[in-house]
Amino acid sequence: MGNIVAFVKGALHYLGNLAFHLYKPNALKNCDHLIHVQTGDKKGAGTDANVYIRLFNETGVTSSEILLDVPFRDDLEKGTLEVFPCPMLGDFGPISRIEIWRDEAAPWDDWYVDYVMIAHVGSKTKYYFPVHRWIRSYRRYSIKEFDVVLPQHDDCHAARADELKEKRMLYEFVRQVPGLPTQVKTLPVDESFSNEYKWNIVQRKVQMLTESAITKRIIYKWTKLDDIKSMFKFKHFPVPSSVEEWQTDEHFARQRLTGVNAVMIRLCERIPDNLDVDDQMLRPFLEDKTIVQAISAKKLFYTDHKLLKGLATDEHTELCSPLALFYLRNDGTLVPVALQLFQEKAPTNPVFLPSDPKYTWLLAKMWYNNADAQYHQALTHLGLTHLVMEGVAVCTHRNLSPSHPMFRLLAPHFLYIIAINTRGLSVLMCDGGWIDKTLAMKSTGTFELIRRG
C-alpha cells in the first residue's frame, strides 16, 4: 500500500512539474518579476491554503493582490522552493516591502515560510525578504526588505507584540534538573530537527556502526601502544594526525592551547599553595631559571582542575583532580614541567616530572588528559555551552521579534541547540545512558560538576 501511495504522489508531482513547464513560457510573457518562495523544512510546514502577496515600492505604491498559485501544481509543499510569475508591474521601481497572508480554504493550511525573493526578469535585480515565521490564517504579515528593524522603527507595533505574546507561550522556562541552568519546558515544533537533518544523522550513524562492527572483528589484541593504530581503518575512523606525536611533551602542552578544552590554562603569578614544587625540583626544566625568575619573565603557566575534587565516580574507577605547570621555552615551545594528580599535598600524591621514567611520566599525562576530557565534556561543553546557551536562546525567542537585528545575528547560532539538549538529557544523561557508560563520574557526577561550575 505504501508503495502505491508513493507512486501516486510521485506521478502527481511529475505531472504538476510538466504542467508548469508548459504553462511557464506563456506566464513569462505577461510578467516582469518572478516571485521565489521557500517553504520551511519543518513538520507541517506545507500548505494547501490560498496564499496571497502584495508588493510595495519605496513611495508606498502597491500592487494588486497576487495569488501564489500555478495551475495543476501542488504548490508550497514542505521544503520546496517555488517560483511564481508576477503580473506586469510596469514602472514600479524598487520593491521595499511585501504583505503576505493566507486563508483557511484547505484542512492542511498551516504554512511556515523561510523567505520570499523577488527577481526582476530584465535587470536581474533581486529583493530579499526573510520571513522565518508561521503564517496564521487571515493575518497579514508585513515584511520589509531584509526584515531588520528595531521595535521603535517598526510600523507594525501591534503585530510585533502579538508575535512575542505567542512566542512566550511556546518558549516557557523550567529547571529540568535541580541546580542546572533553566531550559525550555516543552520542545517547540519549530525547534525540532528537520527531516533532512534527521536523515543525515541516521545515515552517519549507520555508517559508523557498520565500520565499528567491522573494526571490532578484524583488530587484534593490543600488546604495545603502537597497536592502537590498528583500529583506525575507515572513513569515519581515520588515523588521527597526532598518532605519531601524542606521547610527546610538546603535543601534550599544545592540547592546553588548541585542544578540546583550551580554556583552563592561566598565566602563573604565584605557585598554588597546594602544589608541592620547589626550585630544586623545577630548575632543570626552566632553562636554569628559578621559579621566581620564570614567573617574572611570564614564562610559567598553570592549570587547576580543582572542581573535580571529591566527585562521585563509578566504584571501579578513580578520577583525579590535577594541577599542572607549563613552561614557555626560549624557542617559543610550551612544555609541561610538573604534574600533580590530586589537590592535597601528601606522600601518596607525588609530583611527576619530565625526568621520571618514560612510562611513569606518560601515564601521569594520560591520567591528566582523562580528567581534562571529562571536565571538558561535562562542564565546558555540556554545561557552559549547550545548557547555558539554551537559556540565551529561549530568552531571545521570548523577548526579540524575528525582525530584531540581534535576533537575526543570533538565530543561526541557535539552530537545533534546544532539540539537541532535549534529546541529550533524555538519551545521553539518563540512567544507563552514554554518560554512565563512558565517563568515570557518570551522570550524577556530571550534574554535580555543572552545579559547581
Percent strand:
15-25%
Could you estimate the helical fraction of the residues in percent? 25-40%
Task: Give me the strand/helix succession.
Answer: HEEEEEEEEHEEHHEHHEEEEHHHHH
The CA-CA distance between the termini, in Å, is: 55 Å
Could you characterize what this model shows?
This protein has helices spanning 2-29, 157-170, 195-218, 249-258, 279-282, 291-296, 358-399, 405-410, 417-428, 434-438, 442-452, and strands spanning 31-39, 51-57, 66-67, 81-87, 95-102, 112-120, 126-134, 141-144, 173-174, 183-184, 266-267, 300-304, 323-328, 334-340, 351-352. The chain has 453 residues and is α+β, with helices and mostly antiparallel strands. The strands form four sheets. It has a five-stranded antiparallel beta sheet. Strands 4-1-6-7 form a four-stranded antiparallel beta sheet. Helix 7 (358-399) packs across helix 9 (417-428) and helix 7 crosses helix 11 (442-452). The longest helix has 42 residues, at 358-399.
